[in-house]
Design goal:
Blueprint (H helix, E strand, L loop, with lengths): L7 E10 L2 E5 L5 E5 L12 E8 L5 E4 L10 E9 L3 E4 L7 E4 L12 E9 L4 E5 L18 E9 L3 E6 L3 E6 L12 E9 L5 E4 L6 H15 L4 E2 L7 H8 L3 H13 L3 E3 L4 E3 L2
Parallel strand pairs: 13-15
Antiparallel strand pairs: 1-2, 1-4, 2-3, 4-5, 6-7, 6-9, 7-8, 9-10, 11-12, 11-14, 12-13, 14-15, 16-18, 17-18
Helix pairs in contact: 1-3
Family: Belongs to the CvfB family.
Protein name: S1 motif domain-containing protein
InterPro entries: CvfB_fam, CvfB_S1_st, CvfB_WH, NA-bd_OB-fold, S1_domain, WH-like_DNA-bd_sf
């Protein structure tokens, strides 16, 4: 199986040296895994998951560190420096991720957080990124159904809500009235398709629409209590932020679900906790 630069790969140890081990990277030859990343007890013939990239000397190298984003993925990262080459972003590796000036939608300044897409420059084998993500999204017609769950990355805040990348394929909008709790640029969340407009634009919600979101929550609450000794430190009087951190729903939705469980005599409500009936 070919080894992919800029991705996690499972590679086999073929040589041991004082300064590390060499891994069989198939078409890329043998790649060094420096000693500081070699797990105790690793031997020739063993396999392990590593990330393959170019070091500061532009030599292929492996690491067991997992970056915040890999080639072919979108993410929101913070710029840690800017020089005459471009902007450099923290992606969790010793060598920062470069966004050349030619790949900046707007001029990046140190400390800013930007949505970006990571790709491999096949001429140099260098891993770079671009903030010009619009051209990479909305390239075909969305085929989602209302209520379908999707993965989103929260982008820029606008006058009406937040622009979000949906499933690494589309732009969508999460309106302020559909936000539950606090969200920040770069957050990776589960969301639901609220509506697809006639012009193809997609509206999002952090909760399922209609009563379906309540019925789904019933099982979550019961599962939570079963895994926590038949209790949970939440009631219909709990703070909205506490409820959202636990179940990712609004207090109103939580109260409806808790009320349904109480009506069905499945739970006992007290001042500071809810108990599952045996």
């Amino acid at each position: 199986m070919p080894t992919n630069i800029g991705r996690m790969n499972r590679l086999r140890v073929v040589k041991e040296k004082d300064f590390g081990v060499y891994l069989d990277a198939d078409q890329l030859g043998e790649i060094l895994l420096p000693k500081r990343y070699v797990p105790n007890g690793l031997r020739i013939g063993d396999e392990l998951e590593v990330f393959v990239y170019l070091d500061s000397e532009d030599e292929l190298i492996a690491t067991t560190l997992v970056p915040k984003v890999q080639v072919g993925e979108f993410s929101a990262l913070r710029a840690v420096s800017v020089n005459q080459v471009g902007a450099f972003f923290d992606w969790g590796l010793p060598k920062d991720l470069l966004v050349p000036f030619s790949q900046q939608k707007n001029r990046v300044e140190e400390g800013q957080t930007h949505l970006l897409f990571v790709y491999l420059d096949h001429e140099t084998n260098r891993i770079v990124a671009t903030t010009k993500v619009d051209r990479l999204l909305n390239r075909d017609e969305p085929e989602y159904r209302t209520g379908e769950q999707v993965d989103i990355i929260v982008g820029d805040r606008t006058d009406i809500g937040y622009k979000c990348i949906i499933d690494s394929r589309y732009w969508g909008v999460l309106f302020f009235q559909d936000v539950v709790g606090r969200v920040f640029k770069g957050d990776k969340l589960k969301a639901f398709i609220k509506r697809i407009r006639e012009d193809g634009k997609i509206d999002l919600s952090l909760q399922q629409t209609g009563y379906k979101k309540v019925t789904g929550l019933l099982e979550e609450i019961i599962d939570y209590m079963e895994q926590n000794g038949g209790e949970m430190p939440l009631t219909d009087k709990s703070a909205p932020d506490t409820i959202f951190k636990t179940f990712n729903v609004s207090k109103a939705t939580f109260k409806k679900a808790l009320g349904a469980l109480y009506k069905d005599q499945k739970v006992i409500l007290s001042k500071d906790k809810t108990t599952l009936k045996k």
